[in-house]
Amino acid sequence: MKLVSPIRKETKFRLWLWPIRILTRFWRHPIQPGLWIVNKFFQGILDINNNIPWMVHFTSRVSGKVTIGKDVWISFAVSGGCYIQGVNGIEIGDYTIFAPGVKIISANHNPSNLKKWELSEPVRIGEKCWIGANSVILSGVQLGDNVIVGAGAIVTKSFPSNSVIGGNPARLIRQL
Questions:
Q1: Across the 176 residues of the chain, what is the mean pLDDT of every consecutive 10-residue run?
Q2: What confidence score (pLDDT) does residue 58 get?
Q3: Terminus of the chain with fewer CB atoms < 10 Å: N or C?
Q4: Cα 71 to chain centroid, rounded
Q5: In what order do the strands lie in the sheet with 171-175?
Q6: Is residue 47 part of a domain?
Q7: What CATH number should be reported for the domain holding residue 47?
Q8: What pLDDT, on the 0 to 100 scale, is given for residue 13?
Q9: Structural domain tally of the chain?
Q10: Which residue among the candidates 12, 65, 70, 109 is catalytic per the annotation?
Q11: 109 is annotated as an active-site residue
């Protein structure tokens, strides 16, 4: 006797889901069609992150001067809950990926006047880096190529290429 989940049986006959199911079969895009539609709706219709020229996940916020390399936009589109603040500038190299909840903050508030930002170097992230979930990268940090940032790390200083870093504050775990 074959058991069928009642939830599965109910969703089978929802006619409004069939266009997305058919589209999914033939979709050759790195973003799933449902997420693509929702992201486009929030960015294009509701004007959330509408000043960013690439797709951004509907739960993420991106502001300031952010430049990205090849295929980095995919992480912006699929990783939710991210906060990217590029007041002093953020540069992300080619093929860098990041997980949900990543925060990249390029400027601190001025302690004497909280309405102003302090000037600092832009945040630079090299090529082929991997930034784990809920990591925070603070102003002035420069990461070399092929750097892996562990989940939950708070990166307060720069690290060279081919490093694995993690912790709070982030420290070098090993060289690749």
A1: 54 69 71 82 88 91 93 92 94 95 94 90 95 95 96 95 95 93
A2: 92
A3: N
A4: 12
A5: 97-98, 130-131, 148-149, 163-166, 171-175
A6: yes
A7: 2.160.10.10
A8: 67
A9: 1
A10: 109
A11: yes
